[in-house]
Design a protein that fits this description.
Helix 1 packs antiparallel against helix 8 and helix 6 packs antiparallel against helix 7. This protein has one domain. The chain is mainly alpha-helical. The strands form 2 sheets. Strands 1-5-4 form a 3-stranded antiparallel β-sheet. A two-stranded antiparallel ribbon has the order 2-3. The radius of gyration is 17 Å and the shape is globular. It is built from 8 helices and 5 strands; from the N terminus they run αβααααββααββα.
Length: about 180
C-alpha cells in the first residue's frame, strides 16, 4: 500500500542539501510506516544485510561474524524474511559479546563500539527477534543507520546520510510495490 512517507524522507534529503544537515529526530516520520510489523521486520533484516555488505577491512573474529551474518541473511524474502530464530539469537548474542566493552563516565557506563556495522547487525537482529511491534525501535535503527558525525554539525543527518536516506526510500518503494503486487494477485 502506497504511503507518502518516502516523499517526507526525500524532503529531509533536500533539507540536508540546503542547510548542510538535518536533525535525527526528523526520521520519526518512519514510525507511521513501521506500524505494520511485517515492514518493521523487513526493514531490520534489510539494514542488517546493508551493514554486512559494508564491512570494510576486517580480520579475525570480526571477519568471522560478518561471514556468519552474510550466510544467515542470504536469500531471504524482501517483504517477509524468515530467519531461524535460534540461529538469529545466537548470532545476536555473539555480536553483543564481541563488543561488550564499557567505559565508566561521570554520568554512567558507556558502551564502546569498535565496529559500527556489526553493531547495526546486532541491533537489527534484536529488533527482528523482540521488537517487531515497536515502531520506535524501527526509528532508532534508522537513526543509527543514517547518522553521521561531522564536527560542523555534531551527530546528525548530513552529507553522507543522504545516500542512506535515498537507499531507505528505494527500499520503501520496493516494499510498497511488492505489497501492492501481493494484494492484486
Amino acid at each position: 500500500m502506497r504511503t507518502n512517507i518516502p516523499e517526507k524522507l526525500l524532503k529531509i534529503v533536500d533539507e540536508i542539501d540546503e542547510q548542510g544537515q538535518a536533525s535525527l529526530t526528523r526520521l520519526t516520520v518512519l514510525k507511521k510506516w513501521f506500524e505494520r510489523p511485517e515492514r518493521l521486520s523487513a526493514f531490520a533484516i534489510w539494514v542488517a544485510a546493508r551493514a554486512v555488505s559494508r564491512r570494510g577491512k576486517t580480520s579475525g573474529a570480526a571477519a568471522a561474524l560478518f561471514l556468519e551474518a552474510r550466510i544467515l541473511l542470504a536469500g531471504l524474502d524482501e517483504i517477509t524474511p524468515k530467519l531461524t530464530r535460534h540461529a538469529a539469537q545466537q548470532l545476536r548474542d555473539r555480536l553483543q559479546d564481541f563488543q561488550h566493552e564499557y567505559k565508566k563516565q561521570q554520568w554512567g557506563s558507556v558502551r564502546i563500539v569498535h565496529n559500527w556495522n556489526l553493531f547495526l547487525v546486532e541491533e537489527a537482529l534484536s529488533l527482528y527477534l523482540w521488537h517487531v511491534q515497536s515502531p520506535s525501535h524501527g526509528y532508532k535503527l534508522a537513526a543509527a543507520y543514517c547518522r553521521h558525525y561531522d564536527p560542523r554539525y555534531g551527530e546528525s543527518l548530513n552529507g553522507p546520510s543522504r545516500t542512506k536516506l535515498n537507499e531507505i526510500v528505494r527500499f520503501m518503494f520496493t516494499v510498497e510495490a511488492l505489497e501492492d503486487e501481493r494484494i492484486s494477485t
